[in-house]
TrEMBL record:
Residues 17-58 form the F-box domain. It comes from Lolium multiflorum. PANTHER family: BNACNNG10540D PROTEIN (PTHR31672), F-BOX DOMAIN-CONTAINING PROTEIN (PTHR31672:SF2). InterPro entries: F-box-assoc_dom_typ3 (IPR013187), F-box-assoc_interact_dom (IPR017451), F-box-like_dom_sf (IPR036047), F-box_dom (IPR001810), SCF_F-box_component (IPR050796). This is F-box domain-containing protein.
Length: 386
């Protein structure tokens, strides 16, 4: 005879599947918007998907998406688009609509650093597109004149930090916040009420121009665009020790860019005159061995003929997902995907918007960060979100 006493077993979240499967195999893989909708199904689902362990696992499962911005030709509305390279046939969707134009300066773990210049001067802010949280970074906005080099997670402390470079070609400081002679790199802790901390930096930093960095092995990497002379070296910033070093680079043109390529790095160069893109891939990180991998000729004639586009300026970047390499070619309100054989594989058109490849990656997150509510001017589901 079966036992009838004792505590009743908890009711499964889904009648036909074990809770372990529902939570850790299905819900954890959903995009943020879909997961938020699922939370409204029942209280049990809401509780199960709100724990920090689940949110961290959910963030880990999210794809790394290329970020493209779209601004209205005659208006202030601004859109942020994310392109999933795993599904070329799918139409892209904007992940956020904002009520004013921004420059997207940096991205890390689903957080974006925004910049705009208003009547009060430069204004930096931090936002999470998935949770629609936004807050000004007033200490950063009042710091002075600098280049924002990148954003990273400082693992020993769990803090999100921003790497800055004090501009050397300006002969003054704002509010004497930076003593004369303190030209170099600074670190700012997101959410801190302290001014950025001086860490020095390489002597060459003042003589180069740095594009958006590529992240690998907890280090930020740049291929410097030399203003004059210089060797072929990649600049590396260790985000744990917060120190710089250099690594060998292949023999590439001065105007080249770094790109994250799955578990390695790439450098690509676009030749406007010939409409060709050369791509080098790092084969061995420790030995600093590079391989000249691709030369891609853009299908310019096909694009012009098929879509009726005239000659103009083409913006080209490289994206990689699951060992598949693609070129993202933007022209006005059009975005084209080209594979390494030079074949046009997809196109996207945003009518009335000027598309700009931000050269950033977005890995969305619903993880809650306490620094948001501590910042003056914090808001959620409010301006600048529409």
């Amino acid at each position: 005879m079966a036992e009838t006493s004792g505590a009743a077993r908890p009711k499964p979240l889904h009648g036909g599947l074990p809770d372990e499967i529902v939570i850790w195999e299905i819900l954890v893989r959903l995009p943020p918007k879909s997961l938020l909708r699922c939370r409204t199904v029942c209280r049990a689902w809401r509780l199960a998907t709100s724990t920090r362990d689940f949110l961290l696992a959910h963030h880990h499962q999210q794809p790394s998406l290329s970020v493209v911005s779209g601004s209205e030709h005659r208006g202030r509305r601004y859109e942020i688009h994310a392109f999933d390279h795993r599904a070329l046939s799918a139409h892209h969707q904007p992940v956020a609509r904002l009520d004013q134009s921004f420059n997207l300066e940096a991205s890390c773990d689903g957080l974006l650093i925004l910049y705009t210049h208003g009547t009060a001067g430069p204004c930096y802010s931090v936002c999470n597109l998935a949770t629609r949280q936004h807050a000004p970074l007033r200490q950063l906005s009042s710091f002075g004149l600098f280049n924002l080099l990148g954003m990273y997670l400082h693992r020993p402390t769990g803090e999100y930090r921003i790497l800055l470079h004090r501009k050397s070609h300006w002969g003054f400081t704002i509010g004497d916040r930076v003593p004369k002679g303190k030209i170099g790199c600074y670190v700012f802790v997101v959410g801190s009420d302290q001014q950025p901390r001086y860490i020095g930096g390489p002597d060459a930093a003042a003589a180069v121009y740095l594009e958006k960095p590529a992240l690998l092995c907890d280090s930020l990497h740049w291929y410097p665009m030399q203003r004059q002379g210089g060797g072929r070296l990649v600049l590396v910033f260790d985000t744990t020790t917060e120190s710089f070093r250099q690594m060998r680079a292949p023999r590439v043109p001065i105007r080249s860019n770094m790109v994250e390529m799955d578990d390695t790095l790439g450098i690509y160069s676009y030749k406007c005159a010939t409409k060709t893109v050369d791509i080098w891939v790092l084969q061995n990180y420790e030995a600093e061995v590079w391989d000249y991998k691709y030369r891609v000729e853009l299908p310019v004639a096909q694009i012009r003929g098929q879509f009726g586009l005239s000659d103009g300026h083409w913006e080209v970047s490289v994206a990689c997902a699951h060992e598949n390499v693609f070129l993202m070619v933007s022209y006005g309100s059009w975005m084209f995907y080209v594979d390494t054989d030079g074949e046009l594989v997809a196109n996207f058109h945003c009518v009335g918007r000027e598309l700009d490849d931000c050269q950033l990656r977005l890995k969305q997150t619903l993880v809650q960060h306490t620094f948001f509510t501590a910042l003056e001017g914090y808001a959620a589901n409010a301006s600048p979100f529409v």
